[in-house]
Task: inverse folding
């Protein structure tokens, strides 16, 4: 499993930093965001380190699809499937990515405006 020594999300995957997990399997972990922007705000991350969507390669395509399926499952488990939810992948600092380990935000539980941010 590829990891980055100072990556906070790699440390969550390794169990070195606690997180309130809402889902995990052999490829992904989902946990509550520590700075929630909506009543439901979870992050879905791969167990392997991929810095951003731009760093994902052709060999990561199945993993990227899996992350989105996990996001849908988390939304359903959190009761958001019927009312709607948003999934967001920020890529690069200019788009708001602050942790450079790809992650899918799952947001719901309130009306979400468009366009975002």
Result:
């Amino acid at each position: 499993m590829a990891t980055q020594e100072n990556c906070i999300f790699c440390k969550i995957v390794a169990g070195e930093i606690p997180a309130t997990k809402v889902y995990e399997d052999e490829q992904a972990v989902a946990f509550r965001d520590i700075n929630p922007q909506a009543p439901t705000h979870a992050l879905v991350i791969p167990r392997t380190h991929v810095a951003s969507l731009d760093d994902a390669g052709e060999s990561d395509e199945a993993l990227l699809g899996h992350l989105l399926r996990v996001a849908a499952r988390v939304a359903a488990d959190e009761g958001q499937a019927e009312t709607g939810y948003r999934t967001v992948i920020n890529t690069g600092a200019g788009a708001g990515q602050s942790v450079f380990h790809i992650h899918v935000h799952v947001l719901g539980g309130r009306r979400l405006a468009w366009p975002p941010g």
User: Anything to note?
Assistant: The CA atoms of residues 76 and 82 lie 8 Å apart. The longest helix spans residues 61-77. The chain has two helices and five strands.
